[in-house]
Design brief:
Helix content is 0%, strand content 50%. The strands form two sheets. Strands 2, 4, 5, 6, 9, 10 and 11 form a seven-stranded mixed β-sheet that branches. A four-stranded antiparallel β-sheet has the order 1-3-8-7, with no helix packed on it. The chain has strands at residues 3-7, 10-12, 18-25, 34-39, 46-51, 58-60, 68-73, 78-83, 92-98, 103-104, 108-112. The protein is mainly beta.
Length: 114
């Protein structure tokens, strides 16, 4: 059974940090590029960070460059998103995405507010 389980969301003040995790199971994780995406109500879901299967190459949307870092541990079947210098506009539900399966996880809420 394929599972993508996100964790680590919560409430943080502007300028703060959070680390999201996505634990994957049920498929060949090490063969799949992985991404983090986010969505706010009434907006389309957008990919914000992607890492290839080996972890050697990453890509970010301009709005998070220099603040977010995506990484993965293939031994643990887990992908991470380190989010620093958070802004109120980063508030969203964050999802991990397995490119090999075209599948999203269930999401974790991030709220950036004072």
């Amino acid at each position: 059974q394929v599972q993508l389980v996100e964790s680590g969301g919560g409430l943080v003040q502007p300028g703060g940090s959070l680390r999201l995790s996505c634990a994957a199971s049920g498929f060949a994780f090490a063969r799949s590029a992985m991404s983090w995406g986010r969505q706010v109500p009434e907006n389309e879901r957008e990919l914000v960070a992607t890492v290839i299967n080996t972890g050697g190459t990453t890509n970010y949307v301009d709005s998070v460059k220099g603040r977010f870092t995506i990484s993965r541990d293939n031994a643990k079947n887990t992908v991470y998103l380190q989010m620093n210098s958070l802004k109120p506009e980063d508030t969203a539900v964050y999802y991990c995405y397995a490119h090999l399966l075209h599948r999203w996880g269930q999401g974790t809420q991030v709220n950036v507010s004072s």
